[in-house]
Amino acid sequence: MKKIAIVTDSNAGILPSEVEDRDIFILPMPFLIDGKEYFENVGFRSEDFYGMLESGANVSTSQPSILSVTTLWDEVLKDYETIIHIPMSSGLSSSCDTAKMLAKDYKGRVIVVDNQRISVTLKQSVLDAENMIKDGKSAGEIVDFLLESKLDSSIYIMVPTLKYLKKGGRITPAAAAIGSLLNIKPVLQIQGGKLEPYQKVMSVKQANKVMMTALKNDIEMRFKGIVNDKKLKVFIAHSNDVDSAEAFRLQIEKELSGVFIEYIDELSMSVACHIGPGSLAIACARVY
User: Fold this and answer.
1) 166 to 6, 139, 177: CA distances (angstroms)
2) Which of 1, 7, 151, 285 has the most beta carbons within 10 angstroms of its beta carbon?
């Protein structure tokens, strides 16, 4: 048997085709569209998803079922001694706590790590764990690194409309109405696993400037030591707007000296449910 497998959920933005013949396994996140259940990247295209989202369909998310989690674990454990399960942050979903509860029945063969990340930063955690396996690190060493580095990341997200935040109950209808009237485009942040307000602006251009300034401050102050050790990477994520993401990449690399964008990823459908299409994010994370 192989020693260690990594399991994460589709909120990491890793496609099933990307992990073939690797020690990484993806748990598809479920969501409901007009009462019908779908699973991310399982026979359902992103263009179909965004078309239904923009048409006004009732979209909501839920955590994976207990059966789907344990079925995947049982299948993986046929070939591996240990699973390191890295779900989306416990600050954003109860699926992490559920996984921890389920892992108690696996007598140490499944270790659930809450490293409080999502999207591109969660993806980086998975890649870090994979690289540590290749370097011969033990499961304990991998878990220690993931927990030690969990807060060494930032995400800033520009949301172009308040419509989806209102539908998801994250802001009140009154606040959404006033915000839409004023054309407010909030910049949100994820640090420590929770989605919180960062700054309100009046245009996409202003939002991009705010996010670049926030990233610059993180690089120069909060993550200075990590930058000096050359262990900080920067990413861009978007919801169905790759052209704006590419333009943002060019702007960042032009205006922020020494900053290189590692890659551009699409946000998961589960995340896009809550913020809608056209959202743009910049993120950074400490890496192994």
Assistant:
1) 35, 41, 9
2) 285
Q: Which residue has the higher pLDDT, 202 or 27?
A: 27
- Residues 50, 220: Cα–Cα separation, whole Å: 37
- Tokens representing residue 100 in the block: 């921890």
Distance between CA atoms of 23 and 134, rounded to whole angstroms?
Answer: 10
- Rounded to two decimals, what is the model's pTM? 0.91
Alpha carbon distance 38, 252 (integer Å)? 36
Structure-block tokens of residue 167: 């539908």
Amino acid sitting at position 36: K
* Pairwise CA distance, residues 89 & 105, whole Å: 22
Q: What is the largest CA-CA distance in the chain?
A: 60
In percent, the amount of the chain with pLDDT more than 90 equals: 67
Hey, which of 58-62, 107-111, 266-270 has the most confident mean pLDDT? 107-111
Distance of alpha carbon 149 from alpha carbon 287, whole angstroms: 8
Q: Name, in order, each residue with C-beta under 8 angstroms of 15's C-beta and a sequence gap of 6 or more.
A: 26, 41
Sign of the CA dihedral with 240 first, then 176, 169, and 218 last: positive
Amino acid at 217: N
- The helix-helix angle for 119-134 and 139-148 (nearest 10°) equals 150
Q: Kindly give, in sequence order, each residue whose CB lies less than 8 Å from that of residue 284, ignoring residues fewer than 6 positions away.
A: 153, 154, 215, 218, 219, 223, 232, 233, 234, 235
Report the amino acid identity of residue 265.
D
Q: What is the mean pLDDT of the chain?
A: 90
